[in-house]
Amino acid sequence: MRVLVLNGPNLNRLGKREKEAYGTFTLEELEQDLVEFSYHHHIELICRQSNHEGELIDWIHGAGDEGLSGIVLNAGAYTHTSIAIRDAIAAIEVPVIEVHISNVHKREEFRHHSYISPVTIGQIVGFGQDVYKLALQALILKQERG
């Protein structure tokens, strides 16, 4: 099983920004934790982060072309603004799970709408860095059940 974990804009600032919403862990710590988790679940993990919409879209397209088992996507603010990322997800066969570290439904009104949710297989929010592991577990279950 090969899974792409994509983090969008400003997630490279984890541990430095809005600690009350996002916690004190860094992106590097998060990725290391996920790599260890994935190793124990026989998942080959590819972690990427970009502040650039087009680069995220290219990686989404690439996941479709490479036949990856799934994508765990935290699109950050692009969740609420990017029809282009929504269309990129719709253009591939790879299952995508949308994740958010904070509970976006308890935050500002503009964060309540997701352009990408309708084209993902699910959304996991509000459980801190564990949202990524929960998404990986969901992809494992999906693969086991066919």
From TrEMBL:
Superkingdom as given in the UniProt entry: Bacteria
Record pathway: Metabolic intermediate biosynthesis; chorismate biosynthesis; chorismate from D-erythrose 4-phosphate and phosphoenolpyruvate: step 3/7
Sites annotated Transition state stabilizer: R17
PROSITE patterns, per the entry: DEHYDROQUINASE_II
Catalytic residues (UniProt): Y22 (proton acceptor), H100 (proton donor)
Keywords for the protein's UniProt record, in alphabetical order: Amino-acid biosynthesis, Aromatic amino acid biosynthesis, Lyase
Matching InterPro entries: DHquinase_II, DHquinase_II_CS, DHquinase_II_sf
This enzyme's EC code(s): 4.2.1.10
Any one GO molecular-function label of the UniProt entry: 3-dehydroquinate dehydratase activity
Annotated residues for binding of substrate: N74, H80, D87, I101, S102, R111
Biological processes, Gene Ontology terms: amino acid biosynthetic process; aromatic amino acid family biosynthetic process; chorismate biosynthetic process; quinate catabolic process
CDD domains for this protein: DHQase_II
Reactions listed under catalytic activity: 3-dehydroquinate = 3-dehydroshikimate + H2O
Subunit structure: Homododecamer.
Annotated family: Belongs to the type-II 3-dehydroquinase family.
Role summary: Catalyzes a trans-dehydration via an enolate intermediate.
Protein name in UniProt: 3-dehydroquinate dehydratase
Protein species of origin: Planococcus halocryophilus
